[in-house]
Amino acid sequence: MTPARPAPDFTALFSARARRMNASAIREILKVTQQPDIISFAGGLPAPELFPLEEVRRAADAALTRYGPAALQYSTTEGHPPLREWIGARAGIPAANVQIMTGSQQALDLLGKILISEGDTVLVEAPTYLGALQSFQPYGPRYVQLPTDDGGIDVDALAELLQTTPAKLLYAVPNFQNPTGRTLDAQRRRRLVELTAQYGVLVIEDDPYGQLRFSGEPAPSLYELGLEYAGDVEANHILYCSSFSKTLVPGLRDAWVQAAAPIVSKLVQAKQGADLHTPTLNQMIVTELLDEVLPRQIETVRRAYGQRAAAMLGHIGEQFPGGVQSTRPEGGMFLWVTLPEGIDSTRMLERALSRNVAYVPGSPFFALGGGENTLRLSYSSATPEQIERGIAALGETIREALD
């Protein structure tokens, strides 16, 4: 037998871009939470028992009946025209300014690909969505963190920063932010739009949770304010991303970007190189669900998540020791816990897992490090009984870490 040849040194062949890639801390933790006895507050997973299974089945049949073989054929990169038209009509913009994406994560990746050059300054919230950092990192940005509080981004700090620091891009999750659950204050939204327009900074508004408000009053999107400020869709410097993953089902992977024509045109080119187009049948299924099923589904999810958030906050108040703080979200899927200084939530995770409860440590959500004493909890996919037991176990873990 011929002796096996030594394997090539594959890692030495990776591009500089590939070397900047890193694994998602959340995805690594989710591997552990697949064990049936683990109560997971880690992944931001929609509640599967709320999925409109029968409605999706009927929508698939309707799409196949309506479109026949075309439902299973290649289609245009831009997306299914009726779906783009519906999204555009809701936003008050032409369908030509809507690009369908295979999930919001693809939207972030391709926006990073077409906008970020090596060394470009990208402004992000501290903390910010880990998936955005993971998408942008291969393109070599220079991150600058923006301070935040319960009202979202500190726009006074943003104004001061922009006087001395030219930036290309600002990434923000203004509604029920991942990871903190906070919402950007309405007055701050308007000032953020004006400041970024004044200094020539593009804004990526990531809004997968905006329809999932269960308390408080809604505020206009940054995109709406940008459209009002610019007076024209082609002059709007806000790029809006959203998805049907959190309102309908995640498995269909249908999302979209609203933007000026030059951005959409370049996204089309980038998407052609990535996957040609979002799956045809999936887009048609979503379109069949828009008018009747989607509004009902949003109300179902809002009500359930509101009850689960209230239950989690109630048990946190009862079970967590003094000195532990948590945000109070008005919607979405997450809340943020700040532990006393000196407690490292990453080191504490092993103790939590020994009590069969999981969360995501906070530090990966900070582009430049920090947040060791923070963690993210998701209430969306846990039952009330799991929330009660899991928060009790986590309270014991925190008290042990304090000793």
TrEMBL record:
Cofactor(s), by name: pyridoxal 5'-phosphate
Superkingdom in the source lineage: Bacteria
This protein's record includes keyword Transferase: yes
Top-level EC class as recorded in UniProt: transferase
GO annotation terms (biological process): alpha-amino acid metabolic process
InterPro entries the UniProt entry points to: Aminotransferase_I/II_large, Class-I_PLP-dep_aminotransf, PyrdxlP-dep_Trfase, PyrdxlP-dep_Trfase_major, PyrdxlP-dep_Trfase_small
Aminotransferase class I/classII large domain ranges (all copies): 52-394
E.C. designation(s): 2.6.1.-
Keywords per UniProt: Aminotransferase, Pyridoxal phosphate, Transferase
Keyword Transferase in annotation: yes
GO terms for MF: pyridoxal phosphate binding; transaminase activity
Family, similarity comment: Belongs to the class-I pyridoxal-phosphate-dependent aminotransferase family.
Subunit structure: Homodimer.
Listed name of the protein: 2-aminoadipate transaminase
